[in-house]
């Protein structure tokens, strides 16, 4: 054995003995915490930490939002694995549903009973909800205007994806092209409205959803607007809130922030969704 190795071995033994002795001394001289001793540290956490957190969001908002999306991704894949859904490919890129949106749907289906969902715009969310349908007893109706995309999604799900042409409408004093509600069965009513279609526009995006809000929802309902960070969608959300106020509907709302954001509106029977 070389001198260097021998020295290293002796130093390791000496260090181990020293650590044991230091731990014994610390136990004998244990000094408990007190409010007086921790008051300054608590004050700094109370008043300085919030400023630092807000500053990090302002200085690097993209990193903060991407970090949240990674958290949602982990939860979604964990839940799918727990539910035995391991063969559902997800591609949350470009205009597809992001993990924050899929997370909300997973939570809603598992924790809210007797869901009758009207989905505006077919895609990844349609495939996810279709896989959850039998296990949780939800009803799903999806409207899609693009026939080629409708056929593609329909080939991957068992529930019916209805082709609903975009027709010119005038709602609340503004022209828009919205899904034709005539494809829905007469008397149909829904307690969940998912607004993720048709294509987005710069002003009053997806304005046609207001018609479905007014005429096709039950008294108790949950509405989820995807892409709630966009100007056009925010204008439609504002109109939706005004519509509910005019009708005297009691509701609460919440914004889920991620790479894409979702805005939730819930009546008293669905307010649990605001805490997802």
Rg for CA atoms = 27 Å
Q: Just give the CATH class.
A: Alpha Beta
Oligomer: single chain
> Please, how many helices?
9
Assign the CATH topology: Rossmann fold
CATH homology superfamily name: Vaccinia Virus protein VP39
Strand order of the largest sheet: 3-2-1-6-7-9-8
Got a strand count? 9
List keywords for this structure.
276 residues; alpha/beta; Rossmann fold; 7-stranded mixed beta sheet; two-stranded antiparallel ribbon; 9 helices; 9 strands
Layout of SSEs?
Blueprint lengths: L2 H26 L6 H13 L1 H11 L1 H22 L16 H13 L4 E5 L3 H13 L2 E6 L2 H8 L6 E3 L2 E6 L2 E6 L10 E6 L13 H7 L1 E9 L5 H16 L5 E5 L5 E5 L10
Parallel strand pairs: 1-2, 1-6, 2-3, 6-7
Antiparallel strand pairs: 4-5, 7-9, 8-9
Helix pairs in contact: 3-4, 4-5, 5-6, 8-9
Describe this structure as you would to a colleague.
With 276 residues, the chain is an alpha/beta fold. The chain has a single domain (64-275), classed as Rossmann fold, CATH 3.40.50. It contains nine helices and nine strands. The strands form two sheets. A seven-stranded mixed sheet has the order 3-2-1-6-7-9-8, sandwiched between helices. A hairpin with a 2-residue loop joins strand 4 (166-171) and strand 5. The mean pLDDT is 87.
